[in-house]
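tool_call predict_complex ligand=adenosine-5'-triphosphate
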Amino acid sequence: MQNVRHAYGPHAAVKDVSLEMQPGEVVCLLGPSGCGKTTLLRIAAGLEVLQQGAVAINGRKIAVPGGRHVPPEKRNVGLAFQDSALFPHLTVLENVTFGLETQPPRQRRQRAMELLEQLGMAGYAKAYPHILSGGQQQRVALARALAPAPQLMLLDEPFSSLDARLRDRIRDDTLHVLKKVGAGTLLVTHDPEEAMFMADRIALMRDGRIIQMGTPQELYCAPCDPFVVTFFGDVNELYGEVRGGVVQTPVGPVQGGGLADGTQAQVLVRPEALRVIELDEPPTSHRYSHVIMAKLLGRTSLLHICVHGEDGREVHLHARVPGVFLPAANQPVEIRLDPSQVFVFPADLASAGT
Ligand code: ATP
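tool_result ok
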């Protein structure tokens, strides 16, 4: 997609998006509600007529404003949307073979059974959709979309109606099948964890634009602005001035990230960046902290901590530590920072991060 823009009346939903995918690559469009993900997917599918920009597959332009518009059924794309309905009067097998009319019946059946097998649904081939659970229906919808071996799969929140446990399994199966058949996939989600699990690359969107595109690790470990940091989870926000290349924060000095001296900096500290060490008694000579509250969340414990800054100010922070770590309220602690989970930006970008 090149310089794609799209407006609904006066409202610009997609503002200037360029996006390139490699064959077989899984790319997730990730972003908050209303940022334009579905619109972009519908443009790729041909369900929206292109207003500005260009869309091409394998170097062939399939949409140009006011010109060529290859209709959805001729784009060789597979579509599965959140509420993709199956045909209720057809069996599971018939649903999956539906798009294969040009092939001989035996081949159609074989192809459909193969996919149902891979998605754990072969045992339901003769069943009708109404007896299937939501998750099973989504698997069949996915098999139906994959059956014609499209070059590109377009999936819009395909797992959103599933409960958490089932969702993990179906995501796993789906990714396995997508990789096995080598289908390039553009998947819409608003769930950062889902995007990180499914994607080779994530395009994080806000307000009609791609803010950053890269591997999950690039976005998580080298976010380009505060919005990218905060989108992947809660963070502690600290402020300070850069002096001698360093920002002094209540939890200690932090490298200024190349910002000029005198810049007001926003320091974003992921809760997992804080290491918490219990002290026998509060140190008298320098800053110290104490626990306000500790909660066990399962695999991690979440601690609310009050830090006493050198200037006498108190700052409240969240720390997330692995396993069961539940110090009592008022327990004196020392805080250490893992610098790889601390991000420094000019403070005037701060408002953009929310
Ligand atoms: P969600 O995650 O909530 O589905 P999204 O990121 O997929 O959101 P879109 O559905 O692409 O966002 O919508 C982008 C913007 O365009 C939103 O502000 C939405 O209200 C608006 N919009 C979407 N479809 C239409 C339409 N058919 N007519 C008018 N406005 C629309």
